[in-house]
Amino acid sequence: MSASEDIQLQNTLDSITARLQGGEAVEPLLAEAEKSQGDLGEFVDIIQSLHTSLAPISPSQDYADRLRADLLKGRPGVVKRVRQIPPRVHVAAILAVCAGCVLFVLRRIFGSETAQDIQEEAVATPL
Q1: Res 56 pLDDT > 70
Q2: Whose CB among 14, 26, 63, 89 lies 3.0–4.6 Å from 59's, allowing a Cys bridge?
Q3: What is the DSSP letter of 42?
Q4: Contact (CB, 8 A) for 9 and 2
């Protein structure tokens, strides 16, 4: 099936679906489409069974209002998200940053190895 035939088939099935949803008769369109596109019976059977088994449901007004408020409010800023973190996590993060800074400074003071030396040592060390 070529791309143009595929698009034509999709358009035909879309119009059949629209007619079913609108409560219009499908048979005239189906007869016309079967002349040009061959067997559409399986597709139409699936469309009709889906139309009868799936009933459209609208969301409740309460849900729509909550969703609208959530979408309009947006994501909280970084400062607000950080403030919501428990204090013990704040302390742990501060200690981790301080320890990293101390290790960085000590390494610069006592072990003035270049990046090339560190890389060679890491490669030479067996696992």
Answers
A1: yes
A2: 63
A3: H
A4: no
